[in-house]
Amino acid sequence: MGRKAIAAKAGNHDIESMAEKSDLTLPQKTDPVTGHRCIQSYLKTLDNSPGVYRMLDEQNRVLYVGKARALKKRVSSYAKPTGHTPRIARMISDTASMMFLTTKTETEALLLEQNLIKQLKPKFNVLLRDDKSFPNILVTKSHDFPQIKKHRGAKREKGDYYGPFASAGAVNRTLNQLQRAFLLRDCTDSNFETRSRPCLQYQIKRCSGPCVGHISKQDYAGLVADAERFLKGQSTNVQAHLAEEMAAASEAMEFERAAALRDRIRALTQVQSAQGINPQTVKEADVIALHLEHGQACVQVFFIRANQNWGNRDFYPRTANADEAEILEAFLGQFYSDKEPPRQIILSHGLEDPDLMAAALGEKAKRKVELFNPIRGEKHELVTSALRNARESLARKMAETATQTKLLKGLADALDLPEPPARIEVYDNSHIQGTDAVGAMIVAGADGFLKSQYRKFNIKGDDLTPGDDFGMMKEVLTRRFKRLLKEDPDRELAMWPDLLLIDGGAGQVSAVRQIMRDFGIEDIAMVGIAKGLDRDAGKEEFHRTGKPVMALRHNDPVLYFIQRLRDEAHRFAIGTHRAKRAKSQMKNPLDQIEGIGPKRKKALLTHFGSAKAVARANLVDLKAVEGVSEAMAQTIYDHFHTQA
Questions:
Q1: Which residues neighbour 416 within 8 Å (Cβ) at sequence distance 6 or greater?
Q2: pLDDT at position 19, please?
Q3: Inter-residue contact 526 to 502 (CB < 8 Å)
């Protein structure tokens, strides 16, 4: 494997450029030795350059990825036969080969290490398992009347971004109050352009009605400026200004305007009270606290922006029996691999080399990033609060895991499984008379519902009869296991299920069994859940291949557990179907015409008022629209008037 191939796996252009300037050392080995003797054989080919090393087992699976300031010195520490912790000793004994990648600096090595860990998920590394993107608030700048909205993902749209917020709920609550306080629109640009009268948001006093001219461009810009000052932490100035305006309106006996200003001040106060702790001396920081207990860890992250608390999120990394410093270092590297770090990071525990981590994060952010491990003052109070939340969250998680483990064991006993399933996949379909059909897969295990691994399947089969649940299930499972066989044929990535739960009876189970046999898969248990004769919850029947139909007693906890799994799959399938149906209903007929992009679509809607009016328009009227040529007018006319 070449240098560039390894860097590409890291999934980062900066990392690729590092790798192109590096040297890859791959000694040819002939002796099938493992353990410390295998590691010793590499020492003569190494120097003390900084870089990244990988330890692999006999099947070339990556066991561990590490970085080193001096590769030879670091690797030699593994070559000793004794003096290692049990975890490191097991890792060394499983090592059958190694790979090395040198870098110019230790900072580059750290960045490359964390990208490789996220990509390869080695067995003995600390892994951040829940790494979703965080939402922001976006104030758009591509329109005369800017829109305020929630944004998640790449920041490609023109505007000012404020965040991150800990969750979509935190953003929605803040947006709700900001709309009351600043009356900014949340409608799309296309909706804005086609409105002829105010919407409901205006009626309930959450928008100033710019779409129909109820506010001037200058006055609306003032509202936008106030909202952005508030999001930047200058809320005191905003509230003082609003209080002055309210007093002036009251003096002038403009009581309706004074009441509106009073409501805006009240909305701002509600935003601040909902945020809880709002530090005075910390303007921009992430507060990160780790609690480690019985080999399990919880990392709590508080987001402080503009002197305001924008929520918190807890994470449960796989610890691999590492200590606090190693867990925090791994968490920081992986957490900020695809996020911009703040100017300050406040930690509950110190790192082995905080200067190196600060340099790596600063290089990523293109500015200075400071790390703190405070022992007094407001920063210490913040980290103490985060640490308390981490401790309480881990206690709840451990209690839930113990209950879940007991339920999984009960499930195995009830269904005659050889052992409790580590991964359960539940499948369901949703459609209305065959339209907007979707398949859904949810996943559960010892940690409960694994929502990051849920999958939805848009049913693509053109030859399916509308409402053919058997055909839909066949398509979903065929696509699922075809991909599994391609991506993980040796079942090494813990992505294969131990148990399949199917919403249906004997017919569904028989069909699924045949699908699995076609793929040569015979060792995965599957159970069909049918509602029984009366179709009442609590009277479910369970169908298994080659075994009699069975049922569980009405108050059995395992029955409730299976019902929760089925209901979650049903909820996810229904939600996915509704989203697809809503999207199809919102499609504009103009989107189906080749050559009609956003600008022409906007021009047509502005000119005619609606897509229906465009469909009824004659050629002369279509040609009169700005940006529509004679040929395009003919294309539009033919689209609506040519009979199939």
A1: 544, 547
A2: 43
A3: yes
Q: Which residue(s) pair with 435 in the sheet?
A: 432
* Angle 274-275-280 from CA coordinates, rounded to 5°: 135
**Contact (CB, 8 A) for 543 and 409:** no
Place of tokens 């897509």: 611
pLDDT at residue 113, rounded to an integer: 92
- Indicate the residue type of 64: Y
* Burial state string for 403-417 with b = 16 or more CB within 10 A and e = fewer than 16: ebeebbebbbebbeb
Amino acid at 539: K
Three-state DSSP at 522 gives coil
Q: What is the number of other CB atoms lying within 10 angstroms of the CB of residue 258?
A: 18
At residue 480, the pLDDT reads 92
Kindly write down the DSSP assignment for every residue of 234-288, as one continuous string: -HHHHHHHHHHHHHHHHHTT-HHHHHHHHHHHHHHHHHHHHT----SS-SSEEEE
**Separation CA 427–CA 441 (nearest Å):** 5
What is the token pair recorded at 556? 């059995």
**Angstrom distance (rounded) from CA 428 to CA 572:** 9
Which residues contact residue 489 at a Cβ distance below 8 angstroms, ignoring those fewer than 6 apart? none
**Are the C-beta atoms of 299 and 397 separated by less than 8 Å?**
no
pTM here? Answer: 0.70
Collapsing DSSP states into helix, strand and coil, what is residue 442?
Answer: strand
**Nearest partner of 64 among 94, 41, 38, judged by Cα:** 94
**HSE (side-chain half, CA atoms, 13 Å) at 103:** 25
Q: What percent of the chain has pLDDT over 90?
A: 34
Are the C-beta atoms of 11 and 115 separated by less than 8 Å?
yes
CB 396 within 8 A of CB 448: no
* Gap between the Cα atoms of 129 and 434, Å rounded: 37
Beta bridge partners of 140: 159
What does DSSP assign to residue 337? S
Statement: residue 536 has pLDDT above 80: no
Tell me how far apart the 2 most distant CA atoms of the chain are, in Å: 94
Strand partners, 303: 286
Helices (H), 101-164: 106-120
Residue 642 to residue 629: CA distance in whole angstroms: 19
Rounded to 5 degrees, what angle do the CA atoms 342, 343, 345 make?
Answer: 70
d(CA 113, CA 105): 12
Question: How many CB atoms sit inside 10 A of residue 270's CB?
Answer: 15
d(CA 461, CA 169): 36
**Matching residue, tokens 């309210």:** 246
3 state DSSP class of 420: coil
In order of 95, 178, 334, 466, 532, the CA distances from 258 in angstroms are: 74, 18, 50, 59, 63
Model confidence at 349, in pLDDT bands (50, 70, 90)?
very high
In sequence order, the β-bridge partners of residue 302 are 287, 312
Residue 563 to residue 557: CA distance in whole angstroms = 10
Could you tell me the two tokens for 72? 């030879």
Question: Which pLDDT belongs to residue 97?
Answer: 93
Q: What residue type is 459 in one-letter code?
A: I
Helix (H, G, I), strand (E, B) or coil at 627: coil
First to last CA, the chain: 55
Cα-based distances in Å from 197 to 192, 202, 211, 212, 611: 10, 10, 8, 6, 18
**Residue 448 parent element (H or E):** strand 448-449
Query: Cβ(425)–Cβ(521) under 8 Å?
Result: no
CB-CB contact of 416 with 336 (8 Å): no
